[in-house]
Design brief:
82 residues, alpha+beta, two-stranded antiparallel sheet, globular, binds zinc ion
Length: 82
């Protein structure tokens, strides 16, 4: 089971990315207690050995992770990272 990313790291990422989505630059909605519409993504998926360290994490808007039917987009990030 995937480990949860701590709020401290989330806030650090939010600061580093200036509150914008890593992929599309959209402003992320977030406050101290919740991250509405904001997701943490792993540059290297945990299923491929990625870690929960800061250098492997990015914040992105939820539309990048959730498809129209509410499931994870299977094609996201697999071929567009370079
Ligand atoms: Zn985005």
């Amino acid at each position: 089971m995937a480990k949860r990313v701590g709020q401290t790291k989330v806030l650090l990422l939010y600061s580093q990315q200036e509150g914008k989505c890593y992929y599309c630059g959209q402003i992320l909605e977030m406050n101290q207690d919740s991250r509405i519409g904001t997701s943490v993504d792993h540059k290297i998926p945990q299923s491929r050995g990625g870690t929960n360290e800061l250098e492997n994490l990015v914040l992105c808007c939820r539309s990048w992770l959730v498809g129209y039917n509410g499931t994870k987009n299977p094609g996201k990030g697999e071929s567009s990272e370079q």
